[in-house]
TrEMBL record:
Phylogenetic placement of the source organism: Eukaryota, Metazoa, Chordata, Craniata, Vertebrata
Family matches, as PANTHER family: CONNEXIN, GAP JUNCTION BETA-7 PROTEIN
Domain of life: Eukaryota
Biological processes annotated in GO: cell-cell signaling
Protein name: Gap junction protein
MF terms in GO: gap junction channel activity
Localisation per UniProt entry: Cell junction, Gap junction; Cell membrane
Transmembrane segments: 21-39, 77-97, 118-143, 178-203
Amino acid sequence: MSWVFLRDLLSGVNKYSTGIGRIWVAVVFIFRLLVYIVAAENIWKYEHDEFECNVKQPGCENVCFDHFFPISHIRLWALQLIMVSTPSLLVIFHVAYRENREKHHNQKLYKSPGKIDGGLLCTYLISLTLKTGFEVVFLVLFYKLYNGFKVPPLVKCDVRPCPNTVDCYISKPTEKMIFLWFLVATSCLCIVLNLSELSYLIFKYSIQCYLKRYIQKHE
């Protein structure tokens, strides 16, 4: 698949992000998107062909592969990348709405359409919450689907039409597990960055509102 749209999306939202948000964009682009395209995709490219069971029963190998890999790691990772990036569209759409509104009224309605304040602040906080939620959901999915964050070299399968319990071998298990842990680490880093940015924005604008009310009260 083409990742140009996702790259452009991340580049676009970078203009309206805080410092922490720009770090998040860099982590997603360099340590997740580029790693996926350059390395991880090739590791899982022939995972079905390289999955072997010590039995020649027709259909046994296929059902065993489906049993242990209901969703491919790499496809789930791709879906995760898309889902955690798309909430940023909310911010871009809101900024576009502001710019279009200024053109429609032919006057300056905002100090800067991309400044995080008012309604755009709410949109930005919602996008951060959604990104964090998606990260957590996908980490839970990885953990549940693959029985923890591990890739064993040998799995035992007794699913029909296998005649008995057979041994099945996963190719490059150590390499796959390293990338799986890398995926988990970058997801956790992104969650920390999202929560830090969320806390920073809430704290910053809470202080601003308090100071504004304090000044008005003592004028």
